[in-house]
Amino acid sequence: MKIHGEPACFCGGDRPFKSCHGASREAGPAQDTLVGLFMMGSRQLVHVTPSSAPGSLRGRRLVIVHIPKTAGTTLDRILDALALRSGVGRFRALGTVYGQFMGKGKGEAAEHLRHADPESLRKAEIFSGHVPASLWEPTINAQRTAYATLLRDPVDRMISHYLFGIGRGGWSDNTAIESLVRSGQLLDNLQVRMLAGYTDERAPCDEAMLEAAFANLQSRFALIGTSDRFDSFLAALLALYAWPDIIYARYHVGATRVEAARHAALRAEASAFNTFDAQLLSRVRERGSVWINSFDAAEPPARSDEVLMPFMREGEFLSLSRGELARFERLAHQANCRLTHV
């Protein structure tokens, strides 16, 4: 096993592992840091192997249109590790979209993209952020670009955003979704809006916008998945770019909960604001667990022997060989963590 970066010790202190617990332990720092950073924080790890893909996206820049609360932060950490491992540039547009509440002091991701250093954008090969689909191409001047996105059940997605807002101090747990939509802190049919590429949050969502979103998916997007089939999406992405296996844990899984009766009321509220998102998701689901819409003809690459495991901190990941997986799984078992192979 080989560890990249210098993660802090799992004891919670600020010192790096090697000069803290790792200095007096017989076990290797990669093993202990693995247990500390991941297994003590997450009891569920998933090992995803690249699927068989009909072609390749190698040589194309990758742009993830990250719709909030669709497992995009988990994907971001994976992409960070893959970019480091591959030695390619990585750019993430930071901030919210359409002015919605995503935490205090958050600016617009589209503005971060618009004012980014041109040289950083030129060197980057992997992009992501809460940016409407139409704003990427004119900003990064993309040549040979593959767009990808994850959709989610729109009612679940809006409730997840609502609970996230409670946890981040944006509103109280008795705030009506309708009032948040009126104030612009939440937006109706967010997935249709972002994928259609609309930039004016005041524009009403209608059938024309729904058709524009689906037309964009058909003509501009190479890979479309859903958050409840995240592993299928990731397996296809790894295969299309000839990337290695990934072991991951999910990030930003909401911890805020409400009582069952309140949750049912929230579902009824959210349903009224996501009619077109529901129709779009239904059409995407008709394409299967993952929709591979565009690729280049290519011979399948030889399977990599490497397995990457992104850590919770940016810029850190564990690299191990396939032959070390049995040892890794024994460590997981010792830490009372279940490792699922996909």
* SS-based class: alpha/beta
Tell me, what is the CATH class of the largest domain?
A: Alpha Beta
CATH superfamily of the largest domain: P-loop containing nucleotide triphosphate hydrolases
Terminus-to-terminus distance = 21 Å
Low-pLDDT sequence parts: 21-27
- The residue-averaged pLDDT reads 86
CATH-derived architecture of the largest domain: 3-Layer(aba) Sandwich
What order do the strands of the largest sheet run in, or round the barrel if closed? 1-11-10-8-2-12
The best one-word shape is globular
Number of strands: 12
Strand content: 15-25%
Secondary structure layout:
Blueprint: E1 2-4, H1 29-39, E2 44-48, E3 61-65, H2 72-86, E4 89-93, H3 109-114, H4 118-123, E5 124-129, H5 136-140, E6 145-151, H6 154-167, H7 177-183, H8 190-196, H9 207-220, E7 221-226, H10 230-240, E8 245-248, H11 260-272, H12 275-285, E9 290-292, E10 306-310, E11 317-321, H13 325-334, E12 338-341
Parallel strand pairs: 2-12, 3-5, 3-6, 4-5, 6-7, 8-10
Antiparallel strand pairs: 1-11, 2-8, 7-9, 10-11
Helix pairs in contact: 6-11, 8-9, 9-12
Please provide a written account of the structure.
The protein has 342 residues and is an alpha/beta fold. The chain folds into 2 domains: 2-41 and 311-341, no CATH class; 53-228 and 253-290, P-loop containing nucleotide triphosphate hydrolases (Rossmann fold, 3-Layer(aba) Sandwich). Helix content is 38%, strand content 17%. The chain has 13 helices and 12 strands. It has helices spanning 29-39, 72-86, 109-114, 118-123, 136-140, 154-167, 177-183, 190-196, 207-220, 230-240, 260-272, 275-285, 325-334, and strands at 2-4, 44-48, 61-65, 89-93, 124-129, 145-151, 221-226, 245-248, 290-292, 306-310, 317-321, 338-341. The strands form 2 sheets. It has a 6-stranded mixed sheet, with helices on both faces. Strands 4-5-3-6-7-9 form a 6-stranded mixed sheet, with helices on both faces. Helix 6 (154-167) packs across helix 11 (260-272) and helix 8 (190-196) crosses helix 9 (207-220). The longest helix has 15 residues, at 72-86. The chain starts with a strand and ends with a strand.
